[in-house]
Amino acid sequence: MPVLQPIVNIAELLYQKGITDVVVSPGSRSAPLTLAVARHRHLRVRVMADERSACFVALGMALQSRRTVAVICTSGSAVYNLAPAVAEASFGQVPLLLLTADRPHEWLHQQDGQTINQVGIFGTHVKRSYDLPADYTHADARWFIERTLNEAITLSQLTPAGPVHVNVPLREPFYPTTDETFAYGPVRTIEALSAQPTLPTDSWHRLLTEWEQSERTLIAVGQLPYNTALLTVLRKLSEETGVVVVGEVVGNIPRNNVFITRTDTFLAGIGETNARALQPDLLLTIGNSFLTRNLKTFLRQYPAHRHWHIQPTIDHINDSFQSLTTLIPADPLAFLEKLFADVDYQRFLQGDDEDDDQQGFLNRWHHMDREATRLVEKTLAEPTQPLTDWLAVQRILDQLPDASILHLANSMPVRYANLCGLDERQQISVSSNRGVSGIDGCLSTAVGAALMTDKLVTLLIGDVAFFYDRNALWSAPVPPNLRIILLNNDSGHIFRIIDGPSRQPELETYFETPHGYTARNTAQDAGLTYIPCNSPGALGEILSDFFQPAPTAKLLELKTDKQANQDLFLSYKASVKAFQSR
Known about the structure:
CATH architecture of the largest domain: 3-Layer(aba) Sandwich
Family: Belongs to the TPP enzyme family. MenD subfamily.
Strand content: 5-15%
Enzyme class: transferase
Protein name: 2-succinyl-5-enolpyruvyl-6-hydroxy-3-cyclohexene-1-carboxylate synthase
CATH class of the largest domain: Alpha Beta
Distance between the termini: 79 Å
CATH topology of the largest domain: Rossmann fold
Catalytic activity: isochorismate + 2-oxoglutarate + H(+) = 5-enolpyruvoyl-6-hydroxy-2-succinyl-cyclohex-3-ene-1-carboxylate + CO2
Helix content: 40-55%
Number of strands: 17
Shape: globular
Strand order of the largest sheet: 2-1-3-4-6-5
Radius of gyration: 26 Å
Subunit structure: Homodimer.
Number of helices: 23
């Protein structure tokens, strides 16, 4: 099949450019691409029948490995099924390479099956979209295909990482004859060297001056991967300069005696006097989106006089708190390490005088954080309370194996986890689909993450998100290092927490959508160990064994009552209101 040699060579280019993993959804039009990667001895190929789930699995693999993962699907509506994961990868800055088979374009609008307009189908949710030629006989066409794949793979990895689309029109024949073999290459790879922006000396000195003039400095950490070096420099900045460091569970900021992690509690309904006392002069932000609405509202209502946002490239102006004064193109870790070194040296030259204003500012934040911790602990301390989602999440997080991976599904699980937090000693790496924060691929993403590591991966997920994404467990063998914890309250529980829908008579039918399902049959079909639980006492006994290694993945289904969940949360909100009115 000499005409298809450039398609066969795509598999070799993937390997030569550092891609080792490909997720394929079966289809006839995509057969040349599928066979090319399947027969390449250096590529790991996984098959997922559902394209939507397949792309989320690839996203989870790329989240875990921080390397580009390729996705192959056939033409037509199959391509549209990649879109939810593509959008998440775009806003979550996750590298994916989308290889979509297509009919030659002259067959568009000719009543041919599985034919839609696939060129640019993902719009601005991909970093770039390419369209290959349908005919490969001319040398320039082969040169164009090779150059395009080099560019597409490199672009997916360049900061900020993200999805890139390559549309591949294919003519018949799709399948080799029985006596044909594939020969890969030779191919030409084009290396793209990376570089870090360097701030001019005068700009750096201006920033140092602003830092020194600030009496109340706060660093807020958005969503970021777990990074021990970053945690180390943040701790140093707080302990040695009195800077307030605020973070969330999705930013991998753990609970300790240094970082502020309870903002969702103590900033809820905060009064004017306390808010002014916590208002920063200088705000530094790093990372992607923030989860906590109360933190975002506070920083918008009481903006810093100066706000620096540090990100590696200036592709968009991120002004989520509506107070940005300086956008700094730098790697956050490198910037903070240099900042600490220079500030520490300056303090040494000046005799290391204590900054009373900054220390007092830090003490006020710590006081509020400790008070919020006591309030949360008191909320969950009632010895006779039934099993609720929140109580279960606290006990689960406390018993997670050290140095394991936690994936948090959207809606209430990620919020409960943020209210609870993780202890620093556990060294848990947290991830979540917070790019666009949808529930549609949370299970698939966790499956993908577990495929890329030997560490234990625990998914905390609600019932609506779980049943929506059951196809994650359909095709590929579920990795045995995956632990699924399903909070099943038979509803979209978040709608009982949000003030608006909770007051509507249509709440149950049109918002919560109760279903009556359990995960028993799903677990059986997928070959998972299934464990049901409906009491706090039983949960404690189950968890001691649940996280132990096993030959198959495990699913723990916690049956809770939505009214009990609501009552506990309303009690918590009443306690917060009383706390703020003191």
